């Protein structure tokens, strides 16, 4: 079957998707994707997966992609972060049968990725299209050249986040749609825009101003999964529906569920601080659902007392129990001594630690490595000088030195149990233990018989 490319891929495979749920670390898992699809999302990405771990760890693959092949969860794009083109290709080959395309996260591009090696190799070897997600450079021209290079390397769809790699946290700022518009005009593949999406009206305005094929939402979707429906439902409606999906499609990590409830109930938890602490401490899904239920009951009591009118006079456009975006407060910029505090905050946050030299000089090490160096002055952090070990064929852990199956001790024991196969090296300790146990039993039996006969009349 011929691999679809560019606009044909967007039209036929992605069904001209316009409303897109972004790839979010530990946040765009199956249950959340299904919730978003039920409320207007037309395309979803998996959480950003680590290519090297995906290749090495079968459990990681199962938990993040192989766990539940769901017909409702399509079209679906799997996103990876990767430094090594070969490792990225291996991960993509393992994932391609479970999704409709493979995406490479180039939000903070490495030099090797800038040259397009990942994209070119993946485009040649994969049976599904390769797509990319990038952040913009300060200069529009540089951003355009970067996008054109990726298209030339084989990228079939490009998502452009209209912020630079330094615009994070307290200095997030406004995404530049001008950069996105320039990229859209310069390339001949579909483009998705990302940034400044809080309501459905923002989606429509972004498409009109930039000319993109679709719009991706991350924060807006987390605070309101119905953002693409153009409505703002009560928080408990989304929370309870999500929790039902979590039960229906297990397993889902408790940390994912907790994080989603914190996002959904964000504004309410600013008021009910006691339940915020309880939500952070509970240890199972039922307890999380109970906290959400308590929040719902409190909000409904406030509604019955008519407090919703009072709440609207605050900084929020709706009462706190309504799904609505969270807008990060801008850094304070008081001018005390002729300097702008906001610029100082940005300068501090954007400052980078220098890369480590080959000799791992003390002044280039991280704080954690400096602590280790203080405990062991001979500690060597150079990766080239670290001892190499042979990996287990199944899990990637160090293999047993004398294991005949090339497995680690744990995998060897499982193999021996399932296939009744013995490895002299890994099972030697077990044999020694059994021999000693049998010897003790024989000794006790002989001793018991001797003592019993010694005191009997016939023995005398």
From TrEMBL:
<dbReference type="GO" id="GO:0005634">
    <property type="term" value="C:nucleus"/>
</dbReference>
<comment type="function">
    <text>Catalyzes the synthesis of dihydrouridine, a modified base found in the D-loop of most tRNAs. Specifically modifies U16 and U17 in cytoplasmic tRNAs. Affects the level of some mature tRNA and thereby the total cellular translation.</text>
</comment>
<dbReference type="InterPro" id="IPR013785">
    <property type="entry name" value="Aldolase_TIM"/>
</dbReference>
<keyword id="KW-0285">Flavoprotein</keyword>
<keyword id="KW-0560">Oxidoreductase</keyword>
<keyword id="KW-0963">Cytoplasm</keyword>
<feature type="domain" description="DUS-like FMN-binding">
    <location>
        <begin position="21"/>
        <end position="300"/>
    </location>
</feature>
<dbReference type="Pfam" id="PF01207">
    <property type="entry name" value="Dus"/>
</dbReference>
<dbReference type="GO" id="GO:0017150">
    <property type="term" value="F:tRNA dihydrouridine synthase activity"/>
</dbReference>
<keyword id="KW-0521">NADP</keyword>
<dbReference type="InterPro" id="IPR035587">
    <property type="entry name" value="DUS-like_FMN-bd"/>
</dbReference>
<comment type="similarity">
    <text>Belongs to the Dus family. Dus1 subfamily.</text>
</comment>
<keyword id="KW-0520">NAD</keyword>
<keyword id="KW-0539">Nucleus</keyword>
<dbReference type="GO" id="GO:0005737">
    <property type="term" value="C:cytoplasm"/>
</dbReference>
<keyword id="KW-0819">tRNA processing</keyword>
<protein>
    <recommendedName>
        <fullName>tRNA-dihydrouridine(16/17) synthase [NAD(P)(+)]-like</fullName>
        <ecNumber>1.3.1.88</ecNumber>
    </recommendedName>
</protein>
């Amino acid at each position: 079957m011929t691999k679809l490319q560019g606009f044909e891929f967007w039209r036929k495979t992605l069904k001209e998707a316009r409303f897109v749920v972004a790839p979010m670390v530990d946040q765009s898992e199956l249950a959340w994707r299904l919730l978003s699809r039920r409320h207007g999302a037309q395309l979803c990405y998996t959480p950003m997966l680590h290519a090297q771990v995906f290749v090495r760890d079968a459990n990681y693959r199962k938990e993040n992609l192989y766990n539940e092949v769901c017909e409702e969860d399509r079209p679906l794009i799997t996103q990876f972060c990767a430094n090594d083109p070969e490792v990225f290709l291996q991960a993509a080959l393992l994932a391609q049968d479970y999704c409709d395309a493979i995406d490479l996260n180039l939000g903070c591009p490495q030099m090797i990725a800038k040259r397009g090696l990942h994209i070119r190799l993946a485009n040649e070897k994969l049976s599904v299209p390769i797509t990319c997600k990038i952040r913009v450079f300060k200069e529009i021209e540089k951003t355009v050249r970067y996008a054109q290079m990726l298209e030339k390397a084989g990228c079939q769809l490009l998502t452009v986040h209209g912020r630079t790699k330094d615009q994070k946290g307290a200095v997030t700022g406004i995404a530049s749609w001008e950069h996105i518009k320039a990229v859209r005009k310069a390339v001949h593949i579909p483009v998705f825009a990302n940034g400044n999406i809080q309501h459905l009206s923002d989606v429509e305005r972004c498409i009109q101003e930039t000319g993109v094929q679709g719009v991706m939402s991350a924060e807006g979707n987390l605070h309101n999964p119905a953002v693409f429906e153009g409505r703002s439902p009560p928080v408990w409606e989304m929370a309870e529906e999500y929790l039902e999906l979590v039960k229906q499609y297990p397993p889902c990590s408790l940390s994912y569920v907790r994080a989603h409830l914190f996002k959904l109930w964000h504004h309410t938890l600013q008021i009910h601080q006691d339940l915020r602490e309880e939500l952070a401490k509970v240890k199972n899904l039922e307890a999380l659902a109970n906290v959400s239920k308590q929040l719902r009951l409190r909000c409904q009591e406030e509604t019955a007392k008519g407090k919703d009118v009072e709440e609207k006079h605050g900084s929020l456009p709706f009462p706190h129990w309504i799904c609505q975006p969270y807008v990060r407060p801008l850094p304070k910029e008081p001018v005390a001594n002729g300097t702008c505090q906001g610029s100082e905050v940005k300068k501090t946050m954007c400052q980078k630690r220098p890369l480590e030299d080959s000799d791992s000089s003390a002044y280039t090490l991280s704080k954690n490595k400096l602590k280790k160096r203080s405990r062991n002055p001979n500690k060597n952090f150079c990766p080239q000088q670290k001892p190499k070990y042979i990996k287990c064929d199944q899990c990637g852990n160090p293999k047993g030195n004398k294991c005949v199956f090339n497995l680690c001790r744990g995998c060897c024991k499982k193999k021996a149990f399932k296939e009744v196969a013995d490895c002299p090296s890994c099972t030697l300790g077990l044999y020694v233990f059994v021999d000693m146990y049998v010897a003790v039993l024989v000794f006790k039996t002989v001793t018991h018989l001797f003592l019993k006969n010694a005191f009997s009349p016939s023995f005398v």
